[in-house]
């Protein structure tokens, strides 16, 4: 579904992605794990088109994505739930969700909203409240639900566990796991390597702008190097 070949990106003169090769097949959950600053967020920003690419190629559902502007990529089926959530704090929960559906004006928007509320019941309780008043976990749920309102075939998910209590992280990872059954392919970027690898089919390890390991998630969890470097075991 998504193929990345030799992807390079830079901030000013500093190159931070040094030729990334990565593949996500339809229906998979693929995770990219790595320490703070490895380049994971930059990778997702290149995929959604908000960060310029300086080399390599991105192919999504058989089409070259590189020349497609960011605002057109959702229409192609690629949605981004960004680092830091980036919700509209002055707007209500419902208004945030409706913005996620900006491409659509059909009756299915209401059904999609019901589905989002079923996925995250707490958002239904708070649908008319300002999103800025939500807890961190609820804001993360809103960011994911808003991305899903765009009816993506592939969701780019940046650090959904960041700063959240373990019980909320478990809930969020459960929902990510469940997206498969809804036909949504997921590329999940995480510092929480254990949590991410537990729900993923395959994983990649990123270190200072390069992919250093890759494999089935179960193999990566069992790998002594990963256990020592990322799982604290
Ligand atoms: P984190 O988990 O903190 O988001 P990450 O793996 O996602 O880390 P990136 O945020 O992609 O890493 O950062 C990769 C490198 O690019 C880091 O060295 C970072 O300092 C640098 N960087 C990120 N954003 C910018 C920016 N806007 N301007 C300059 N350098 C940046």
Strand arrangement, largest sheet? 6-7-8-3-9-10
Name given to the CATH architecture: 3-Layer(aba) Sandwich
CATH class: Alpha Beta
Q: Main beta sheet, described?
A: 6 strands, mixed
* Arithmetic mean pLDDT: 94
Structural class: alpha/beta
**Gyration radius, to the nearest Å?**
17 Å
Low-confidence stretches: none
CATH topology: Rossmann fold
Distance between the termini: 34 Å
Kindly estimate the percentage of residues that lie in beta strands according to DSSP. 25-35%
* Heterogens: adenosine-5'-triphosphate
Looking at CATH, the homologous superfamily is: P-loop containing nucleotide triphosphate hydrolases
Q: What is the 3D form?
A: globular
> What helical percentage do the residues reach?
25-40%
Features:
single chain; 233 residues; alpha/beta; Rossmann fold; six-stranded mixed beta sheet; four-stranded antiparallel beta sheet; 10 helices; 10 strands; globular; binds adenosine-5'-triphosphate
What does this structure look like?
This is Amino acid/amide ABC transporter ATP-binding protein 2, HAAT family. One of its GO terms (molecular function) is ATP hydrolysis activity. Residues 2-233 form the ABC transporter domain. Helix content is 36%, strand content 27%. It has 233 residues and is an alpha/beta fold. It has a single domain (2-231), classed as P-loop containing nucleotide triphosphate hydrolases (Rossmann fold, 3-Layer(aba) Sandwich), CATH 3.40.50.300. A 6-stranded mixed beta sheet has the order 6-7-8-3-9-10, with helices on both faces. α3 runs parallel beside α6. It is globular and about 45 Å long. It starts with a strand and ends with a helix. The model has no long low-confidence stretch (mean pLDDT 94). Bound molecules: adenosine-5'-triphosphate. Adenosine-5'-triphosphate (ATP) is lined by residues 11, 16, 34, 36-42, 83, 191.
